Every structure is written in C-alpha cells, then in structure tokens.
C-alpha cells in the first residue's frame, strides 16, 4: 500500500509546483481570475472568421479588466485554434473543460465545429456561446448553448423580403456542400413559399471547387429571375466571376457569409451589383443616428482599428458580443455555471455589434430581423438598400 | 448541346492544369524514381509568387511570370540539395516521406508569408470578356492555359528527343547507373529534373491563379489531382500525363453537370482506384512496371 502511494505523492508535488508557477504571475490583480475559453478557426480556410474573433475576444477581455473586472475579479481568456476542424474543436473543448477549468466557452467559429462540440458542453453543463450562423445550433434549444451570430433564418428572410419587393418570383440557388451551405439551402427552400418565390433549380458546389460554370449553366437553362449563392470565400467569388463569364446578367444574391471587403477584392469587377444581407457593421457610417447600434458600432470599429490597424469585419463582433454578454451574466454568480446559464437566458436589450439581443428560454440567439440590412456592392463599396 | 460543350470546355481547362502538374510528377519520377508530394506546393508558390511580383510590386506580368517560375525552380534545386541529397540511404520510401514533410513545411512558410486569405490575380490578357465557342463561354485565360500547357508538352517532347541534355536525361531515366558509366553526369541530371518539375508546377500555379484565386492551402488538392492524372495516364509517360489530366478534368466536369456537384472530388479517386485495379500501369504506361 505504501509503495503504491509514493508515485502519487510525487505527482502531487509536481502538480503543486506547476500550479505555483501558473498562479504566480497572476497574483497582481489580487483576486483569482474568471477563466473563459475561446475556440476559433484562427488558421485554415476559415481564418477570416476566427482571426478577428480571437482579436475581438482579447479586446473585450481587456475592456472588461480595464473597468475593474467582474465583481472585482479579472477575466482571463484561454484561446485555442480549431483550424476549422470538428475533431480539433472537440479536443480543444475537452482541454478547456478538464485542464483549464473554464467557466464558459466562446466559439467555435463554424457551424460544423459547433455541432461537434455541443454534446460535450451539454454533458458537462458548461455554457457555450457559439459564433456560428447555423440555426441548428439553437433550434431546438439546448440549455447550455447560445449563439451571437445572426441565424441564416433571418438572412434568408431579409433576402426574400427584398426579392418580393422587386417582383422576383423564380430563383436558382447554388449552395456550398458544407454545414453553412446546407443550413442556408434548407432555409431557402423552407421559406420560399412564404414569399411567393419558386426555386426552379437547386445546385451545389464543394467548398474547394474552382469552377462553377457547369452548375450555373444548368441554372441558366431554367431562366430564373435571380440567382442566390450561399457560401463563404472564396467559392462565391468564383460564382460571381463565372456568372460574368457565362454572360448571365441576372441579379446575384449572396449570403451574409461573404459580407467582408475581402469578397469585393476577390471578385473584383464581378462583385458589382451583387446584393447581400449583412449585419450593420459594414454600413455603420450610413446608418441613421437614431439607430441604437450606431454608437456601439463606431466605438468598436475605432477601437479595433486602433489596436489592430484595420481589417474590421462583422465576424469579430460575434465574439465581442459574446464576451460582453457573458460578463453581464457572470456578475454575482461567483463562477456558478448553472447561474451563468440562467443569467444568459435573461439578457435583454443588450446593444451589441450584431444586433440588439434579447434572450429568452425559447430563443438562445436573441436577435430579430432588424439585425440585418440589405446592401448592394457599387463601385467597389457597400450601398445601403431600403 | 451547348450545355455539353460548356461542361467539356470547363473540364478541358481544369484538366490541362492537372496534366501540367502530372507532367511535373513525371519529369521527376523519370529521373529519380521519386514521387514528390510537395509538387502541389510548388503550384501554390508559383501562384502566390506571381501575385506578389505582379500585383503587390507591380512588375509587368510577363516578367513576374518568368521570375516566379525561376524562383520556384531554384527552390526545387534547394529542396534536392538541402533535404534529399544528404539522406544517407536514398531509398524511395524515406525520400517520399521527406517530400511530404517538405510540403507541410512549405505550406506553413507560405501561411506565415502571405497570410491565410485567398488572393485574386489578374489574367494574362487584360480582357475579362468571355469568348463564345458554339454557344459555350470560355474565359481568355482558359485559352491561355490550354495553349501554354500544349506548348510545354511539345517543348518537353522536343527537348527529350532532340537535345543532348534531354537525351542524357532520358538515359538517366532508363538506367541511371548505365548512364553514369557512359559519362552522363547523372547527379546534375537529377538536379535539372528537380528544377524542371518545380518550374512546371509554378507555371501551373501562375496560369490557374486568375481563375481559381490563390491561397497558401491551394496546393494540396491540386497536387493530389495531378498525382491521380499521372497515375491515370501512366507514371512516367508525358503524353499519358496530358491524356490523364484532360480525362480527369472532363470526367469531373461531366459528373458535376449530369449527376451532382457533390461527387466531383470522388470521381478523381474512384477513377484512380479503378485504374489501379484494372490497369496499374496507367493508360499509356509501360505495361510491365518494375520499380522499387
């Protein structure tokens, strides 16, 4: 018995020393920090999402700490890279929960990675605030899963409303074969009848495809009034270019997944005239002063630009909103995860980057259709449509 | 009918690229028995190099093209000298694994240098207006691609059959030791093969970039498709590479056109499996393959 105990003692001693090292430098703030996990696709093909999310999370943490932290305790973010890979996301979540002992997790950046980690956080009951768009994340509602990104339900509704207003009745859709595209496709199909719109051709493409002329040729054969493409860079830029190539002059609608200046850069001239729904950040300067989000947006844009030298996009806002709402929810809980969850559900009229959030037990996204506006790309920049 | 033609022309364009990459595999395989899995990364470096020189630094496009290809060729030489030559027991398997490592390394370096975003690159002709061929629309860049690939095929063929260096390379390919005994500097031929194959990859990257855009991770899939094309046509056969590439491109495009876009990438690998089962030497390969 004694012999068996010895190695354990050894480990415990080692652990104590290690803990000492970890805890040592943080003694400055006085109180033990609240640890928050972040998992984003910081590298890989979706880095355009994860990179600003990571930066925005760090910025929000610094803002909160500069104001004295939460209940006198600082916030500390532990951030891991998923590379957009669901397997790595699950590993990272397990590490955050069992090794870093975080109170809540912000991210992941993508719908597939979020769907992969949801069972894990539900099982161990750690609140997760996802930065991904897919509606499956919050529908049906899971107790511990929230999200800040606008759902594709709202994006589709915004597009269809605009089409209805402009008499577009027959559309062809071209969606990417990953969770983002599939979720978008489902919503496009589901909501079309509500707006008197008929989908005459339904096509798909792979996330790494380099040529979509074959699909567009098939869509062209059905003579639709407009084309809707649902994907994230670079596929939609290829679609825009291929449409030019085929001489298709139909209006092209894109998803909010490409609402960043990068898309205009990639698609070049072919971007002209493309319409898409987007969060208000892209057009913050064009918003009327009465808009409640305008001040918040301008501050975020100014701070982000000052800190990182530009590259502001709406994507970073997902993590920024998540952290600020989490800070609200953390207040007075003393780090009790169930209480944090309850508080998150009670957040109302939180003016954020992606919209004005009002969470309820039935709605873990908390955004309404006014979170989106329609824009058109003209002369290489965004123009607000009514 | 014009639909079919559109699918066909699209397939030929992508197929030509696959063929060019396959050609890069072949040139090296012939001289060294080596499959260089960093071939796709040379394609990526060609595209991104062209972007840096032509777009960021604003050099004339022709000059950027040549400089990007030359730089990647040099990198091919460097790879041989630094990573492969010092290996104590130069057996194919360790060498191939080194090339896999090199590909991961190059991708990582490219990510640091160029970042993770994709970049848009201008076509070789300023006009973005498509050309109409019997009702099918073709980008001028596609014509460039097919033209350049054909030119390289013919050039490589003539080089192998008509010049002393080319013949020496072929001799090395047939039997390295025998060639060495006859006074052919086989070491230098191997170096030349590395430079050639890296250069061919870079050419592929430069001409495909305006159509697909280029990013640090574009090489992997292109490399694999090129490898499929090389296997399909028969490893080591230059014309086989061309046939394999175009066949693969057209099959993919038709699969997208007439079945579903979801199975596009599956087609390449199904074809590869099929060919390995039925005719392992490839369509135009020598029927008795005894290497390794």
Task: Produce the secondary structure layout.
The complex is a heterodimer of chains A (386) and B (292).
Chain A: H1 2-23, E1 34-40, H2 47-66, E2 75-81, H3 86-98, E3 104-106, H4 111-124, E4 128-130, E5 145-147, H5 152-165, E6 170-176, H6 179-191, E7 198-205, H7 213-220, E8 226-230, H8 235-245, E9 252-254, H9 261-267, E10 275-279, H10 293-308, H11 314-330, H12 337-345, E11 350-351, E12 356-357, E13 372-378, E14 381-384
Parallel strand pairs in A: 1-2, 1-3, 3-4, 4-5, 6-7, 6-8, 8-9
Antiparallel strand pairs in A: 10-13, 11-12, 13-14
Chain B: H1 2-32, H2 39-56, H3 61-84, H4 92-114, E1 131-133, E2 136-138, H5 140-162, H6 164-174, H7 176-181, H8 186-212, H9 219-233, H10 238-258, H11 264-278
Antiparallel strand pairs in B: 1-2
Helix pairs in contact in B: 1-5, 1-6, 1-8, 1-9, 1-10, 2-3, 2-4, 2-8, 2-9, 3-8, 5-6, 5-8, 6-8, 9-10, 9-11, 10-11
How does this structure look, described?
By secondary structure, chain A is α/β, with parallel strands linked by helices. Chain A folds into 2 domains: 31-150 and 297-367, Response regulator (Rossmann fold); 153-284 and 372-384, Response regulator (Rossmann fold, 3-Layer(aba) Sandwich). Chain A has 12 helices and 14 strands. In chain A, strands 2-1-3-4-5 form a 5-stranded parallel sheet, with helices on both faces. In chain A, strand 13 and strand 14 form a beta hairpin. In chain A, helix 5 crosses helix 6 (179-191). The longest helix of chain A is centred in the first third of the chain and has 22 residues, at 2-23. The radius of gyration of chain A is 22 Å and the shape is globular. Chain B is mostly helical and 292 residues long. Chain B contains 11 helices and 2 strands. In chain B, strand 1 (131-133) and strand 2 (136-138) form a beta hairpin. In chain B, helix 2 runs parallel beside helix 4 and helix 5 (140-162) packs across helix 6 (164-174). The longest helix of chain B has 31 residues, at 2-32. The termini of chain B are far apart. Mean pLDDT of chain B is 86; it is low at 287-292. Chains A and B meet through helix 2, strand 7, helix 7, helix 8 and helix 9 of A and helix 1, helix 8 and helix 10 of B.
């Amino acid at each position: 018995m004694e012999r068996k105990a010895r190695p354990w003692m050894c480990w415990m001693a080692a652990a104590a020393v290690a803990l000492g090292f970890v805890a040592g430098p943080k003694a400055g703030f006085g109180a033990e920090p609240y640890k928050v996990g972040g998992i984003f696709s910081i590298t890989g093909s979706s880095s355009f999402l994860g990179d600003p999310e990571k930066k925005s999370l760090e910025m929000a943490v610094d803002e909160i700490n500069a104001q004295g932290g939460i209940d006198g305790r600082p916030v500390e973010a532990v951030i891991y890279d998923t590379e957009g890979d669901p397997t790595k996301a699950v590993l990272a979540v397990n590490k955050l929960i069992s090794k870093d002992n975080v109170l809540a997790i912000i991210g992941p950046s993508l719908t597939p990675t979020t769907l992969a980690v949801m069972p894990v956080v539900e099982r161990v009951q750690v609140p997760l605030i996802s930065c991904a768009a897919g509606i499956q994340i919050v529908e049906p509602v899971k107790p511990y899963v929230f999200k800040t990104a606008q759902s594709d339900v709202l994006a589709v509704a915004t597009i269809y409303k605009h089409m209805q207003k402009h008499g577009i009745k027959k559309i062809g859709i071209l969606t990417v074969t990953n969770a983002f595209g599939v979720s978008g496709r489902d919503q496009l199909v589901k909501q079309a009848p509500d707006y008197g719109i008929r989908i005459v051709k339904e096509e798909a493409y792979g996330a790494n495809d380099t040529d979509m002329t074959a699909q567009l040729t098939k869509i062209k054969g059905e003579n639709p009034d407009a084309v809707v493409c649902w994907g994230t860079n670079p596929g939609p830029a290829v679609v825009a270019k291929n449409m030019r190539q085929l001489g298709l002059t139909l209006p092209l609608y894109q998803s909010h997944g490409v609402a960043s200046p990068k898309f205009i850069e990639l698609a070049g001239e072919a971007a002209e005239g493309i319409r898409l729904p987007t969060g208000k950040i892209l057009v913050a300067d064009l918003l009327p002063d009465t808009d409640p989000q305008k001040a918040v947006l301008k501050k975020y844009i100014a701070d982000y630009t000052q800190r990182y030298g530009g590259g502001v996009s709406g994507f970073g806002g997902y993590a920024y909103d998540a952290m600020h709402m989490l800070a609200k929810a953390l207040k007075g809980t003393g780090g009790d995860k169930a209480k944090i969850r309850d508080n998150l559900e009670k957040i109302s009229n939180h003016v954020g980057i992606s919209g004005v959030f009002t969470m309820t037990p039935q709605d873990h996204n908390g955004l309404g259709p006014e979170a989106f506006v329609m824009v058109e790309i003209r002369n290489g920049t965004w123009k607000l449509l009514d | 009918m014009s639909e079919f033609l559109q699918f066909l022309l699209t397939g030929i364009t992508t197929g030509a690229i696959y063929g060019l990459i396959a050609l890069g595999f072949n040139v090296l395989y012939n001289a060294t028995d080596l499959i260089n899995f960093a071939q796709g990364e040379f394609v990526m470096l060609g595209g991104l190099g062209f972007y840096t020189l032509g777009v960021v630094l604003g050099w004339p496009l022709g000059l950027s093209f040549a400089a990007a290809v030359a730089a990647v060729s040099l990198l091919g030489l460097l790879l041989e000298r630094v990573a492969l030559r010092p290996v104590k027991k130069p057996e194919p398997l360790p060498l191939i694994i080194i090339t896999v490592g090199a590909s991961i390394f190059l991708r990582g370096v490219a990510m640091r240098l160029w970042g993770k975003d994709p970049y848009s690159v201008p076509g070789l002709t300023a006009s973005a207006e498509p050309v109409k061929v019997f009702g099918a629309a073709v980008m001028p860049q596609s014509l460039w691609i097919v033209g350049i690939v054909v030119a390289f095929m013919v050039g490589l063929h003539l080089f192998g059959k008509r010049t002393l260096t080319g013949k020496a390379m072929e001799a090395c390919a047939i039997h390295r030791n025998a060639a060495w005994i006859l006074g052919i500097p086989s070491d230098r031929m191997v170096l030349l093969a590395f430079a050639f194959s890296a250069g061919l990859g870079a050419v592929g990257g430069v001409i495909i970039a305006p159509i697909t855009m280029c990013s640090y991770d574009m090489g992997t899939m292109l490399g694999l498709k090129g490898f499929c094309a090389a296997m399909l046509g028969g490893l080591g056969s230059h014309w086989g590479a061309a046939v394999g590439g175009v066949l693969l491109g057209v099959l993919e495009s038709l699969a997208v056109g007439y079945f579903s876009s979801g199975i596009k990438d599956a087609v390449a690998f199904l074809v590869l499996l099929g060919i390995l089962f039925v005719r392992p030497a490839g369509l135009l390969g020598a029927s008795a393959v005894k290497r390794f």
